[in-house]
Amino acid sequence: MPAESIMIKDVPKEDRPRERLLKYGANHLSNQELFAILLGSGTKDESVMSLSNRILMHFEGLKLLKDATIEELIAIKGIGTAKGVLLLSAIEIGKRMNQYRPDEKYVIRSPDDGAEFVMEEMRSLKQEHFVVLFLDTKNQVIHRQTIFIGSLNASIVHPREVYREAVKRSSASIIVVHNHPSGVRLQSA
To answer: Which of 42, 76, 90, 150 stands 20 to 30 A from 171 (CA)?
Structure first.
């Protein structure tokens, strides 16, 4: 009997994902085992480990999972609405944790600091976003706002939109940022 078709109840208790997490910690589990814990069960014909593996294969590991939709998830045999919603919730929590900023104000000391502040959120956007960081006199970010969302390779921004928000926030300075979802960087003369 292949290992993938063995039901969790047939696995020795100490080798089950939940028990391994409790004993060794979550960082010692594979992505497949973590998904198995989230899903809780497989189907009558498929183990939770096999179902977890199919999900990971469908989304090329974790690579495409961050952009998964409920429709894509429930299209996978063995994933219904309840399990799809559970997985989407877990994905969203992961995104939010990755984007979390402590209550302390973030200080921009270099271009790299500015890029780091927005990178996680902007790296997977499918359209160009023109974002402005509004800073106080100590170069602390007091506000971040997307001023314009463009197409795959263009965004048109009016300076009045940027300056209106800067005046409203009493900003001492601003940093403007935009992404290149097409992967092509255009140079202007």
So the answer is: 150
State the Cα–Cα distance between residues 146 and 166, nearest whole angstrom: 13
Which whole-number Å values give the CA distances from 162 to 116, 127, 173, 176, 187, in the listed order? 21, 19, 11, 9, 22
Question: Nearest to residue 76, comparing CAs of 91, 92, 89, 65?
Answer: 65
By the 8 A CB rule, do 131 and 176 touch?
yes
Using left for φ > 0, alpha for ψ between -120 and 50, and beta otherwise, residue 45 falls in alpha
Given a contact cutoff of 8 angstroms between Cβ atoms, the answer to whether 48 and 36 are in contact is: yes
Q: How far is Cα 154 from Cα 127, in angstroms, rounded to an integer?
A: 8
How deeply is 76 buried, as exposed, middle or buried, from its count of CB atoms within 10 A (0-12, 13-18, 19+)? middle
pTM: 0.55
Rounded Cα–Cα distance for residues 60 and 44 (Å): 25
pLDDT digits (tens, 9 = 90+) for 9-49: 677 777 788 898 999 899 999 999 999 999 988 888 898 99
Q: Per-residue pLDDT for 104 more than 50?
A: yes
Phi/psi-derived region of residue 61, left when phi > 0, alpha when psi is between -120 and 50, beta in every other case: left
Quote the pLDDT of residue 182: 64
